[in-house]
């Protein structure tokens, strides 16, 4: 072991109390960051997966302009050829067809506006989480022709139960009146009020028939193996569609385009989080700066002797940097480990926030939040603390270079 | 050729708005192998002169040559190099690096000189033996008495075979018996190794041991007494 | 001046650099407490104000069952008697307005979708909700104009229609039949949130009453009080007065559970933030005070040798800490207030995250809001905990034995 390292290490324990407090401060910051980042990343994952699962899928092929207006006449004219194109992309695990239109939903006693969505039960279950959100009754089966699922709040508003009839009245693709009668087979509960208050799911065939779709659909919804596959699949699909179908009326949209608010709200949350973390670490940095400064000041005479002996200022800087960075590293190590432990504990047990259930539900989050420990959250958390505390230690370490031996000896 | 030559040296400090002349017109030549004391009351300029000779500080005017090199012409790094190879220091107190053991303190200088580890250990131990600390290699400064600490300091100053050892009040914190022991040790080093010792002191005992006493007052040399004659190796 | 105070004050300036460093930590910490809590309160305040002006008001009166089942089946027929009770019980300065609010379907040739149809008394409504002041094109409703309808800008775009065009509204009437009626778009309103623009359409109260065949019945009365803090008290009073009327009285907190929950979460978050920031600077305070104490061991030894009691020494050290904390608080509060003041006019523009803001229901520009209890809370946390952590070094200082102290180097 080099003598500098030895000296630095021993110096660290000359004032155990101070060193421990300093390390504790660094560890505290690091622990907090690791935990908070894991928390944030964990919620983002859930939010994205929930939203992708219930609403958008990873990617959709739609008619150009449909995403903004959602008009019933903006259709994908030949879903079979799109299906064929999609089927050739290996990263796509499943895809399904959907058609949507606004309709007046009337039960025996009530009438409410609702979004009628035509789904293909078998492939839908492979793409979205809808099949798992059944609250009462059953999901649609492939053979169903006049059955429907209603959102929990809609069913409540309509005062309608399983097996009861629901009349859907809307406007078909060609402007004609679309009308159909369905039986409630199941009640669906996503936890997101807007969805639960307005959705009726019916078999795609029935939808196409009632709304004069003539075999067309509004959305081809894709699920990829993972979020990372979305960007490459999108490019690949755009090329394929352009080549095979030679149609410039179709677009491929990814989940961030389908739900622009989601990604931006995550960014917003992340940015505001970082502002808080940054301020926190600056406070920590100033909190520990005194330790570093004092360990220089109170040893001025010692440094004077060392300089008199012919030690170069560079070597002094090195010794001090060894000292401060070992403190920083120990702190970060402890903090990261403790942070990981705390995170892992809550990752398993979850954290319930009092009174927050309703808000969390709106964002597709469960009542208990499970932070997700990841290499990313640990490294980013520790990294930020490392950079800022290390910068802090540079000041005293370089200040020592300006020490003048005669004055240092007089101290 | 004298090992230290001071010619017309002045040192002026700026103290607030007042200029204080710490040293005025100092002319002093010290031959190699001398055992000399710079004496005088506090504020007389003896420590300042010692620091100038050690290259810790620079003179306002005049020239100082140490082993033939003009201090004014050296950069900070060169001064550090000169101190490392030619000058050893012994201070009044807090001489040692507290986190290093006696042996490591002695080794530290050799480490700076780039001497390999095995040789360092051998030399450090043998010099500690010489100063009478045979069984104290591993002790930290806090575990040594004041006299023992100063012996380590002497060992450290000597170990790199410097031409000069500058000692600033080395006995001030020691009782007279311990002080006497330390002085005898240094005298022994002086004769055995032909190292020049220059003291800054107001301790009578140091002056008794010194062969020459230069008395300063208010920054000027008042007297320069050659007290006793000893056999000395003439400069070549 | 008291001796303690004088000594304490001088002592903290014995090492100005060290004092400056720890003061910086405290100042940044306190600043962040004041400023960030101001921002969060700003966000919450905006949510509340948006919510309240978003047809909520401070109080609402509904017929029993309406809130669970907002249909025309549940209505208040004796609105006049209710009005009399309100006139008796509402504080001076309160305004209130009658509404019919039902779910409806709005459609034209291009599009149709579900909306909330609100029948309003134009003159009264102008006093308590956003509609009249949010009109950007066309004009506000006139009383007696039973064909006019006010819609949001986003709705206009969605229906590919414009001012002067027709819009057909359909809703279930009192007999259970679907009744429909055509309106002409006379005004367009714009709000922070597109969702609001798409959700609400406004027509004259009498027009809806006619359409739904409910005579002069209404479904809600919204009340705006001089201050939203009065809501609970007035609600209580009204509940008593209306005990026999089969009327639900709800405060804005009952009506906006999400806003209420958000505020609660912010409350805990702000407090946690205070705590976390304090811990961050607490380490510094302890360490700095410890340093200041340890380098003065001899001094304390001497004081004790002179016969000073430990309690006195503790007080001395604590006084120093208190000075440090007070200085930091003073500057931190000042800076925090200044930053809030600087942003009071312009606010912080978060348009870069527009879609995200819409997603979470926030406005684009945040104006920080100072809440006295946050400021008091921040200062209390710092002073109380600051003194608490300083107690350790102070205790240390008080319990050096003279011998320990004098042999310390």
Topology:
The complex is a heterotrimer of chains A (411), B (236) and C (409).
Chain A lengths: L2 H10 L3 H41 L2 E5 L2 H4 L9 H9 L4 E15 L4 E9 L1 H7 L6 E4 L9 E5 H7 L6 E7 L5 E12 L4 H6 E5 H7 L8 E6 L5 H15 L5 E5 H4 L1 H38 L2 H9 L4 H37 L1 E2 L4 H6 L5 E2 L5 H25 L5 H6 L1
Parallel strand pairs in A: 3-8, 5-7
Antiparallel strand pairs in A: 1-9, 1-10, 2-3, 2-6, 2-9, 4-7, 5-8, 6-7, 11-12
Helix pairs in contact in A: 1-13, 2-11, 2-13, 2-15, 4-9, 11-15, 13-15
Chain B lengths: L3 E12 L2 E13 L4 E5 L6 H8 L7 E6 L2 E2 L5 H11 E4 L11 H12 L3 H14 L15 H14 L4 E5 L7 H18 L2 E6 L2 H6 L2 E6 L2 E7 L10
Helix pairs in contact in B: 3-4, 3-5, 4-5, 5-6
Chain C lengths: L2 H10 L3 H41 L2 E5 L15 H11 L5 E13 L4 E9 L1 H7 L6 E4 L9 E5 H6 L7 E7 L5 E12 L4 H6 E5 H8 L7 E5 L6 H11 L5 E5 H4 L1 H38 L2 H9 L4 H35 L3 E2 L4 H7 L4 E2 L5 H27 L3 H6 L2
Parallel strand pairs in C: 3-8, 5-7
Antiparallel strand pairs in C: 1-9, 1-10, 2-3, 2-6, 2-9, 4-7, 5-8, 6-7, 11-12
Helix pairs in contact in C: 1-12, 2-10, 2-12, 2-14, 10-14, 12-14
């Amino acid at each position: 072991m080099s003598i500098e390292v030895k000296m630095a290490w021993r110096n660290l324990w000359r004032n155990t109390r101070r060193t421990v407090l300093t390390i504790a401060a660094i560890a505290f910051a690091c622990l907090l960051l690791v935990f908070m980042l894991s928390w944030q990343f964990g919620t983002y994952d859930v939010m994205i997966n929930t939203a992708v699962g219930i609403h958008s899928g990873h990617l959709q092929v739609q008619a150009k302009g449909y995403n903004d207006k959602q008009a019933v006449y903006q259709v994908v004219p030949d879903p079979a050829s799109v299906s064929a194109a999609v089927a050739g992309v290996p990263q796509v695990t499943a895809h399904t067809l959907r058609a949507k239109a606004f309709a007046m939903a009337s039960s025996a006693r009530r009438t409410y506006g609702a979004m009628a969505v035509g789904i293909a039960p078998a492939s839908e279950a492979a793409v979205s989480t809808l099949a798992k959100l059944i609250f009462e009754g059953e999901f649609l089966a492939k053979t169903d022709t006049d059955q429907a699922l209603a959102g929990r709040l809609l069913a409540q508003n309509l005062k309608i139960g399983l097996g009861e009839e629901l009349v859907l009245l809307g406007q078909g693709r060609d402007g004609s009146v679309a009308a159909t009668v369905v039986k409630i087979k199941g009640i669906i509960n996503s936890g997101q009020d807007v969805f639960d208050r307005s959705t009726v799911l019916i078999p795609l065939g029935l939808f196409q028939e009632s709304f004069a779709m003539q075999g067309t659909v509004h959305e081809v919804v894709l699920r990829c193996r993972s979020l990372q596959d979305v960007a490459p699949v999108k490019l690949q699909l755009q090329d394929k569609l352009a080549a095979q179908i030679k149609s410039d009326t179709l677009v491929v949209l990814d989940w961030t385009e389908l739900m622009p608010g989601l990604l931006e709200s995550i960014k917003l949350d992340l940015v505001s989080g970082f502002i808080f973390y940054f301020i926190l670490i600056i406070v920590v940095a100033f909190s520990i700066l005194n330790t570093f400064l004092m360990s220089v000041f109170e040893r001025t005479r010692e440094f004077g002797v060392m300089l008199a002996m012919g030690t170069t200022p560079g070597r002094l800087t090195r010794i001090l940097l060894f000292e401060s960075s070992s403190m920083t590293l120990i702190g970060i190590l402890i903090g990261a480990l403790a942070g990981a432990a705390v995170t892992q504990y809550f990752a398993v047990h979850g954290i319930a926030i009092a009174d927050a259930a309703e808000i969390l539900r709106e964002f597709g989050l469960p009542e208990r939040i499970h932070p997700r420990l990841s290499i990313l959250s640990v490294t980013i958390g520790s990294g930020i603390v490392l950079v800022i505390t290390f910068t802090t230690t540079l000041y005293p370490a370089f200040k020592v270079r300006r020490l003048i031996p005669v004055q240092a000896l007089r101290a | 050729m004298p090992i230290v030559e001071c010619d017309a040296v002045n040192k002026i400090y700026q103290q607030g708005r007042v200029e204080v002349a710490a040293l005025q017109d100092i002319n002093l030549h010290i031959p190699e192998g001398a055992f000399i004391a710079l004496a005088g009351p506090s504020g007389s300029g003896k420590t300042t002169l010692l620091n100038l000779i050690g290259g810790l500080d620079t003179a306002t005017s005049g020239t100082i040559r140490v082993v033939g090199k003009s201090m004014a012409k050296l950069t900070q790094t060169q001064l550090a190099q000169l101190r490392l190879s030619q000058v050893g220091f012994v201070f009044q107190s807090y001489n040692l690096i507290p986190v290093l053991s006696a042996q490591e303190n002695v080794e530290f200088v050799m480490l700076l000189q780039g001497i390999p580890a095995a040789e360092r250990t051998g030399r450090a131990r043998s010099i500690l033996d010489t100063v009478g600390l045979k069984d104290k290699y591993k002790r930290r400064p806090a575990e040594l008495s004041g006299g023992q600490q100063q012996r380590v300091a002497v060992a450290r100053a000597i170990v790199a075979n410097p031409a000069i050892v500058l000692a600033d009040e080395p006995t001030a914190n020691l009782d007279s018996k311990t002080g006497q022991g330390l002085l005898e040790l240094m005298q022994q080093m002086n004769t055995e190794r032909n190292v020049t010792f220059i003291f800054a002191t107001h301790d009578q005992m140091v002056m008794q041991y010194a062969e020459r006493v230069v008395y300063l007052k208010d920054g000027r040399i008042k007297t320069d007494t050659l007290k006793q004659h000893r056999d000395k190796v003439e400069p070549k | 001046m008291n001796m303690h105070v004088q000594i304490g004050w001088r002592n903290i300036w014995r090492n100005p650099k060290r004092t400056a460093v720890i003061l910086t930590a405290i100042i940044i910490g306190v600043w962040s407490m004041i400023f960030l809590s101001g921002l969060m309160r700003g966000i919450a305040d905006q949510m509340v104000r948006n919510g309240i002006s978003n047809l909520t008001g401070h109080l609402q009166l509904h017929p029993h069952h309406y809130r669970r089942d907002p249909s025309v089946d549940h209505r208040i027929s004796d609105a006049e008697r209710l009005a009399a009770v309100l006139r008796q019980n509402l504080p001076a300065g309160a305004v209130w307005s009658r509404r019919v609010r039902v779910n409806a379907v709005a459609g034209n040739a291009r599009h149709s979708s579900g909306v909330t149809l609100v029948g309003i008394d134009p003159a009264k409504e102008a006093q308590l909700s956003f509609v009249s002041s949010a009109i950007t094109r066309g004009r506000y409703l006139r009383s007696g104009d039973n064909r006019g309808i006010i819609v949001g800008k986003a709705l206009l775009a969605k229906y590919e229609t414009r001012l002067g065009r027709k819009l057909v509204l359909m809703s279930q009437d009192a007999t259970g039949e679907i009744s429909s009626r055509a309106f002409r778009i006379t005004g367009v309103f714009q709000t922070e949130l597109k969702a609001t623009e798409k959700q609400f359409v406004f027509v004259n109260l009498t027009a809806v009453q006619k359409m739904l065949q409910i005579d002069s019945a209404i479904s809600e009365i919204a009340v705006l009080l001089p201050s939203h803090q009065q809501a609970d008290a007035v609600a209580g009073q009204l509940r008593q007065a209306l005990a026999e009327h089969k009327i639900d009285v709800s405060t804005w907190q009952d009506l906006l559970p999400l806003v209420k929950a958000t505020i609660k979460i912010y409350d805990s978050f702000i407090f946690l933030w205070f705590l976390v920031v304090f811990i961050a600077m607490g380490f510094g305070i302890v360490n700095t005070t410890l340093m200041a104490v340890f380098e003065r061991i001899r001094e304390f030894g001497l004081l004790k040798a002179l016969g000073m009691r430990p309690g006195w020494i503790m007080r001395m050290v604590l006084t120093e800490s208190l000075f440090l904390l007070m200085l930091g608080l003073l500057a931190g509060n000042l800076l925090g207030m200044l930053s809030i003041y600087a942003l009071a006019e312009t606010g912080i523009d978060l348009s870069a995250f527009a879609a995200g803001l819409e997603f979470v229901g926030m406005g684009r520009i945040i104006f920080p809001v100072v809440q006295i209890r946050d400021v008091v809370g921040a200062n209390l946390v710092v002073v109380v905990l600051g003194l608490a952590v300083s107690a350790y070094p102070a205790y240390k200082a008080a319990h050096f034995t003279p011998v320990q102290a004098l042999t310390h180097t």
